[in-house]
Structure formats: structure tokens, C-alpha cells
Fold:
Amino acid sequence: MALTLSDVAAAAERLRDIAHRTPVHTSRTLDALAGCQIFLKCENFQRVGAFKFRGAYNAISQLSPEQKAAGVVTHSSGNHAQGVALAAQLLGVPATIVMPDDAPAVKREATAGYGARIVSAPAAQREKVSAQLARDEGLTLVHPYDDDRIIAGQGTAAWELFEQVEGLELLFVPVGGGGLISGSALAAAARQPGCRVVGVEPAIADDANRSWRSGTVQVLDQPPPTIADGLRTRFIGERNLAVMRQYVYDMTTVSEEEIVAALRFVWQRLKIIIEPSRAVALAPLLSGRYPAPGRRVGVILSGGNVDPFNLPEEITGANA
Amino acid sequence: MALTLSDVAAAAERLRDIAHRTPVHTSRTLDALAGCQIFLKCENFQRVGAFKFRGAYNAISQLSPEQKAAGVVTHSSGNHAQGVALAAQLLGVPATIVMPDDAPAVKREATAGYGARIVSAPAAQREKVSAQLARDEGLTLVHPYDDDRIIAGQGTAAWELFEQVEGLELLFVPVGGGGLISGSALAAAARQPGCRVVGVEPAIADDANRSWRSGTVQVLDQPPPTIADGLRTRFIGERNLAVMRQYVYDMTTVSEEEIVAALRFVWQRLKIIIEPSRAVALAPLLSGRYPAPGRRVGVILSGGNVDPFNLPEEITGANA
Structure:
């Protein structure tokens, strides 16, 4: 594989003073409940509200002058869209984001607010439309996860966490397309080889678990209806799988109820706003499904892009 | 006055490794909107979710062995109750908390969870009941704000902020009973004398503004119906006023709309959960009511004890 252990270190250098060095939070209550010592890497406080800025900046900053002048394109309705838009703006690169035509106005505005051109397309056509734009206009496609520079960039969150906290024995990471988990696993291998990296998925979106176990990419027929809407990816990337097979220690899943319980705990007790998708990595520890008695455990809280005043009933209703 | 500039330093020493050293957050978006450089001292991440733990621990830890053995009493339905309960538990001191009989079950449970005895009383009788208990049972009353050790303890949040951020020129602090503002003003005078401390109140609860200007404690007839429910105190303490008159640079007020706008900004953009009361200190900067162009400004976000899934309509409805 093209990625090497030094790629995350290089990305961390590239992002210095550009990305936020996000804080690490701890909670005695959480530790008591989970029976281990938990260190939460708060990427919800990252620029654009999620780790996605890291990969986007690492990728776009390495384009050739010609590629930069021509511009980049991606398809996303979520954090990757905003990450690419902001990174491109900072680097003076024109950005085009293909968004599904039913994307919430607030997400379109946030992305446009970073100076990106928004192109609407039916959700099912997004990939085709962005490929077409790349061809027609000579744009470089910035894939959300199946890209070495994206993987190395996302890995810098874990890299920083290893700098901030010594002696981590386990690291829990949420898995969608596989960018964050493969970057985090690389970071661990390079910097804290004794730390075991565990990927966590919603049980009803377990394609990455099955891919990792079988060794071939498993594809879901439909975007899974999990509350963790940032993890509704139908399949992980080939590059991601290769890194995961080599460096990820274990994969596990959590139920929708466990995700909601973890989300509510983080909001109510830790006073931190995270997206449902980002509660996923904490859920196995909090529910007791994946105990780590007495261990020093890192958890990546990877994003906070949710409207706290417009939550789905599954979240607000569970204990109202 | 009995309080001296060294009292906050002594309190900070007492609280070392006991209270959390809470993080300071910054936001480029916030700075751009407010036109100054803002440093948010996140006391919502403090133990029990608010700065109140600082004063309570500082006060109770200084009681005599006899007083400690007999126990403490206070009246509060909010953060002070939990602060006293936890501090007493850590110090092995029996605590009795007089709560209004209509206090939400969740607050009673949280306080009882720290091992305190809860005594119910009609809201209007709370002070009498706690005074009676103090007399009958030989308990020491831990006043929520009109107490030198409470004031010095609350001042340690600002003290820490001055350690964490150099060259602050202004510090905005919310004002309820006056414990936090008088402690913060003392901390500034002792540690960063060039820093001007500004107290902020809801306009419909402006008794502290009027007290500070007139030099005598002004009393509201009724608890004011502000959304900032932690600041519904009817009057500040004499001790607090004395410190404020000497060390507070200015006092200002904000409208209910400005409080809600600031609260929504902190939740939506900063991804931090704070109580409505704690948005008050940020509101004058965000609304432009009290501009501080180009300045380095500290703001104390003093507590996060609110149920994020059960918010009043004034908050959720404004932009839903």
C-alpha cells in the first residue's frame, strides 16, 4: 500500500496552526460508570465542527499548482462538504460541492458560507454528477474517505491524542467510510504501537465489521436507517480496508439504544454537544458491551454538527 | 473588609487537584462576530457542572473540626446545593440541603446522589428552615454568596483563567447574588490589575447594577422572571457589594432576547452546553451592546446544569 507510517506525522506537521489542537476531556462520573479511565478527544470542537477538516486540508494542500488553480470537487451533504469548502478557501482553491437536492438549507448555507459553489443533484446521482464535473471542468475529486491523503489527515486527531495523553492502551473510533479508523490505526502503529485500535459501528450498519472480518469490501443495499446519520455509508474504501486489516485490533457494533444512551450521557453529564454518529465510539464502553477494566482508553468524539434545538424524537423522547 | 487580595490565591491552592482546571475555549467565528479576541473559561465542565463547587469546597474545608463533625446546611435548588453536597462528601462532612418542595426530582436526586440529606420546605420558607436547622442541630450555614470564603473560592475560576491566558484586558462575569463577580474582581485585582471586570445581569433583574451604582443593596420585590434562572436572586450580599464597589470596573445589562441569542450561539456553534444564566456574560459582546474592539476579553461560562432535552420554548422556538 502507498500509505506509510510517516504519512500521519507529515500530515500533522502540515496541519500545525491550521487545524485546532482540540482538547481532551475526562469525567470521573464516566470513568466510574465504565470502569476504566477514558480520554475523550473532542473533535466536535474542530474547525467546521468535525475531524473532516483535517483530511480535506491535508489532501488539498498537496495538490499541484495546476490542480489547485483548476479547483476541487466532492459530493457530500455533511461534514466533509464543509471541511473541503473551508480547506479550499484557506488555500485559495475553487471548490465545488455536489449536494443532494433535499439537503437541509442550513447545511447548504454553511458550505456556501465558506465560499464553495454548490451544485444540487438527486441523492442517487451525486457520485455521477461529481465525476462528470471533474471530467468536464478538470476538477480534482476529493473523495470523502478512499484517499491516502484523506486517511493520513484524519489520523492526525489520534496522533494529537497520543501526544496529549500518555500510555493509552485502547482507542475506540467510529466507523463510516473508514477514513478516520484507518488514519487512527496508522497513527497508533506509528506512535503508540501498544495501543489497540477498535472500530465501532451501529449494528444495523455493520458492513465495515463484515468487511474487516472477511477481507473483502461488503456493500449494504441501502443506506442503513441508523440514528448515527454520519455513518450511513454503504461501504468502506479498498484503501481503508487494507489499512484496517493490517492495523485495526478489533471491530465491534452497538445497538441504536446504546447509541442514544451514550449521546444523552455526553450531552447531559459532559455538557458537550456531539452528533449521534459520534456517540457511537463511546457506546460500547458505557453500555458494558466491550469492557476494558482499569485500562487507559481513548475515544474520538468526532463531530458536533447537529442542531441542538431540532433533535429527532428518538433522542429527546427516550427519557423525557 | 475582611477579604484580602491573597485570599483567592490561598483558595486556588486549596482547590488544586480537587477542582477541575477547566479548559479555555476560543472560536474564530465568535471573534469575527464580536470584533475582539474572546477566551471562554468553561466552568460548565467543572465538577457538579458549575463554578459553585469551588466556593463550597473552599468554605467547608476551612471549618473547624467541631464544625465539620456537626455538619453544614444550605438552601438552594441549584448548583450551590450540588456544590455543597459534593464538597461535604469529599471532606467527610454531613450536609443538609433545604430545597423548595417543588424542586425538580432530577435536582433532588443529583444532590442526594452526593450523599446529602434533603429537607423539603415551601420556597418562601427556605431561609427560615435552614436557619432553624442550623440552630437546632448546631449546623454551620454555608451561604450561597454572602460569605468571604465562598467569594474567594468562586474567584479561583478567574484566577485560573489569568494563569491560562496572558494579557486579558476585560473580563465579563454574570451576576446573580454577587459571589462570582466579587471573587473574580478580587482575582483580577490581585493577579491582573490592568484587567477591567464587567458584571452582566439580565435587564429585568438589574438589582446588582442599581446596587453597585447607588452604593446600597437594592432588593427586588419578586424573583425576576428571566430565562436566566440561575440569576433570579432578589438581592446581592453586603460583602459582595463592598468588593464590587471597590474592584468592579463596570456593570451592564442584557435583554432576554440577547441572552437567548447568545445561548443558541454557544450551543450551535461552540458545541458547548451551558445554562441560560451562563450565556448572560457573553451576550453584551455578541450583541454589540458592549463592544470591545480588538481587545483580549475573558468570559466566564459558569455552569451547564440544564436538561438539553427539555428546554423551554423561548430557547428552542426562537429559530425552529
User: Anything to note?
Assistant: Chain A has a mean pLDDT of 92. The interface with chain B takes residues 23, 25, 28, 44-45, 47, 49, 264, 267-268, 270-274, 304, 307-311, 315-316, 319-320 of chain A (CB under 8 Å). Chain A has 15 helices and ten strands.
